[in-house]
Amino acid sequence: MSALQKIRRKVSNSQFIIGRHVFDKLEELGLTAEDVFLVVKYGELVNELTDDPRGARYVIIGEATDGTDLELVCRFLETGQVFFITCYDLY
Questions:
Q1: What does the alpha-carbon distance between residue 46 and residue 12 come to, in Å, rounded to a whole number?
Q2: The domain at 3-89 falls in which architecture?
Q3: What is residue 42's predicted lDDT score, i.e. its pLDDT?
Q4: Range 40-75 burial, b when 16+ CB lie within 10 A, else e
Q5: What is the pTM for the complete model shown?
Q6: Which stretches of the chain are assigned E, i.e. beta strand?
Q7: What is the pLDDT of residues 35-46, one digit of tens each?
Q8: Are 36 and 84 in contact (CB under 8 A)?
Q9: Confidence (pLDDT) at 70
Q10: Domain limits of the chain?
Q11: How high is the mean pLDDT of the chain?
């Protein structure tokens, strides 16, 4: 199973945490947590950053409900949950 499939499964099983920074960025962009779910569901895993001693980070890019290209960064926690660290618009 790919990392993206694992992330999608964790989200569908409510095994995730959305960090405060994500909510702050979403608010700046006029988006909501639903946009995070949309990007996870339909987006593409574009990078796996493995040089962090805290564990690999995964970068997913997809389109939000308003057409914004959104980049999500997440990692798996020791608890097995997915933690969404931050997000950015790609403009």
A1: 21
A2: 2-Layer Sandwich (3.30)
A3: 97
A4: beebebeeeeeeeeeeebbbbbbebeeebebbbbbb
A5: 0.93
A6: 16-18, 44-49, 57-63, 69-76, 82-89
A7: 999 999 999 999
A8: yes
A9: 96
A10: 3-89
A11: 95
